Amino acid sequence: MDRIGLIKRIFESVTLIDTGRKWLVTKGLERKGRVNYFAGLNDALNAFKDAKIIASSDLAALIISELTFITQELQLCDPSDKETSNSLQQAVRSFDDALLALQIVENADNYRIADKTHPHHHKHRVKDMPKDSFHIACLAHRTRIGNMLRTPGINMAEKELLTQRQSNLATARAVYLKKQKAALSNEAM
């Protein structure tokens, strides 16, 4: 799958969702709003499903997909909504850090050095691997999405998208954990 095409699909789906939400409350555009909103949710769901499928061969594509989604949401967020804006800004920073960790874990020599900078207490480990910025970003975002899933009145199509995104984060962590284990498996070398 083409990473650029995947990111384009995510970008376009968020635009449709946003336009749909705005038109839903605009007299005379309600029907078009509903169509755009649900088309955007469906397109995003399918793109995130595709991202999950390729995660084992292109984990960065899955993370960049989520980063694109939240970056687009941040850009479309009402400037007066400080709480949401701050949360999305933190998520963007976390995923930027996660991508840096992903680059490092793919070089075993560098990751062995990085591992020495992480505490070895079980609170700071995931299955004996460093609980680094990749894990932290996924855990924090999973919590963020979990909070959205508990919002009363959210429609089932949006819940399905949120559930898929949450599932993608679990997949990302599992794939990343395998990369960590591979990078640290030859520590005696």
Describe the overall structure.
- The chain has helices spanning 3-24, 30-53, 59-76, 82-105, 108-115, 133-149, 156-184; strands at residues 125-126, 129-130.
- The chain has a two-stranded antiparallel ribbon with strand order 1-2.
- Helix content is 75%, strand content 2%.
- Strand 1 (125-126) and strand 2 form a beta hairpin.
- The chain contains seven helices and two strands; from the N terminus they run H-H-H-H-H-E-E-H-H.
- It is mainly α and 189 residues long.
- Helix 2 (30-53) packs parallel to helix 7, helix 3 (59-76) packs antiparallel against helix 4 and helix 6 (133-149) runs antiparallel to helix 7 (156-184).
- It has one domain (3-184).
| Number of H/I helices | 7
User: How large is the radius of gyration?
Assistant: 18 Å
Task: Please bin the fraction of helical residues.
Answer: over 70%
Biggest sheet features: 2 strands, antiparallel
Low-confidence runs of at least 5 consecutive residues? none
* Strand order, sheet with most strands: 1-2
Summarize model confidence as the mean pLDDT: 94
Quantity of strands, as a count: 2
Estimate the global geometry from the Cα principal axes. Answer: elongated
Order of helix and strand elements from N to C terminus = HHHHHEEHH
Beta-strand share of residues: under 5%
The first-to-last residue Cα distance is 36 Å
